[in-house]
């Protein structure tokens, strides 16, 4: 893959998913920077000497390694809660899909969940359906079921009620882009979960590989572009009916719909960030402690 091909892919990505920092790294975003300063960029530089297939394997192996490490660091949080509850199940809540379907293996937000389950820690996961595309109901729930993790799908607006009644011990999400200040861009609805968690004194953690950091953005709310997708995702729903995939209209044909794909959760609402190098607070000083080369 040559520079012109990488450039073409970058331009296409910018048109359709401006929020995903991990894609930027995979497509060579910031290639003018020294390779040692960009996590994973060595994979892209290897293209010239190794070819696309070998490079793809290298990127995939690094992705799986980082996610496994996120699980190893994050499971300590779940263990701590489990001890405080004297071994009763730890109830987690997650939003959208940040599992192995979105990565190569383990996932980011799901990595600590799988690590806890595999370690024999009793857990239960509330899975937000994540409208309008229902990634939680369709993807995360399927993943957890495949792994044998107890879980319950909930409507997106249920989380706050559960938190008020002491049914959630920890909120754990992924992120598509994270500002150096600790502001987090993730699937629409994440911000509301963070607000509810803050109001109910529930820890809100975000799991991410370091490729998700945007080292050039400090004000996530002001500077992270938010994609607006087609209104048909809101106006219609798709699912199985009598063994066939069918699409049905939910709203009046005369009613317009807005479809913001992501929102930004300010750092002040984030308890901590779980990365492949460890857990840090959601602020620049703490982030740079883990990544001093930046």
Per-chain topology:
Elements: H1 3-16, H2 21-26, H3 41-45, H4 47-50, H5 52-84, E1 90-94, H6 111-118, E2 123-128, H7 135-147, E3 151-154, H8 159-164, E4 170-173, E5 177-179, E6 184-187, H9 190-199, E7 204-207, E8 213-214, H10 220-223, H11 232-235, E9 236-241, E10 244-249, E11 262-265, E12 272-275, E13 278-280, H12 284-290
Parallel strand pairs: 1-2, 1-4, 2-3, 4-7, 5-8, 7-12
Antiparallel strand pairs: 5-6, 6-11, 9-10, 12-13
Main pleated sheet: 7 strands, mixed
Radius of gyration: 19 Å
Q: Helical content, roughly?
A: 25-40%
Sheet-strand content, in percent, reads: 15-25%
SSE arrangement, N to C: HHHHHEHEHEHEEEHEEHHEEEEEH
Question: Strand order within the widest sheet?
Answer: 3-2-1-4-7-12-13
Total strand segments: 13
Structural class: alpha/beta
Assign the CATH architecture of one domain: 3-Layer(aba) Sandwich
- CATH class category label of one domain: Alpha Beta
């Amino acid at each position: 893959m040559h520079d012109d091909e990488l450039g073409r892919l970058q331009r296409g990505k910018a048109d359709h998913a401006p929020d995903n920092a991990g894609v930027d790294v995979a497509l060579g975003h910031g290639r003018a920077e020294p390779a040692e300063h960009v996590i994973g960029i060595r994979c892209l530089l290897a293209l010239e000497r190794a070819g696309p297939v070998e490079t793809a394997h290298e990127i995939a192996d690094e992705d799986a390694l980082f996610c496994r490490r996120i699980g190893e660091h994050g499971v300590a949080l779940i263990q701590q809660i489990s001890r405080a509850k004297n071994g009763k199940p730890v109830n987690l809540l997650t939003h959208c899909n940040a599992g192995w379907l979105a990565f190569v293996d383990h996932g980011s937000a799901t990595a600590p969940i799988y690590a806890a389950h595999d370690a024999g820690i009793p857990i239960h996961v509330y899975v937000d359906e994540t409208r309008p595309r229902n990634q939680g109901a369709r993807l995360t729930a399927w993943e957890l079921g495949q792994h044998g993790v107890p879980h319950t799908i909930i409507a997106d607006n249920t989380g706050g009620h559960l938190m008020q009644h002491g049914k959630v011990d920890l909120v754990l999400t992924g992120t598509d882009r994270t500002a150096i200040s600790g502001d987090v861009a993730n699937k629409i609805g994440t911000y509301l979960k963070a607000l509810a968690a803050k109001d109910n004194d529930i820890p809100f953690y975000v799991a991410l590989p370091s490729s998700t950091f945007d080292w050039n953005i400090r004000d996530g709310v002001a500077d992270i572009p938010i994609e607006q997708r087609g209104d048909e995702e809101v106006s219609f729903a798709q699912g199985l009916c009598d063994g066939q995939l069918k699409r049905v209209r939910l709203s009046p044909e005369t009613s317009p719909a807005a479809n913001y794909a992501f929102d930004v959760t300010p750092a002040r609402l984030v308890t901590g960030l779980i990365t492949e190098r460890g857990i840090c607070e959601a602020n620049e000083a703490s982030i740079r402690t883990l990544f001093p080369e930046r």
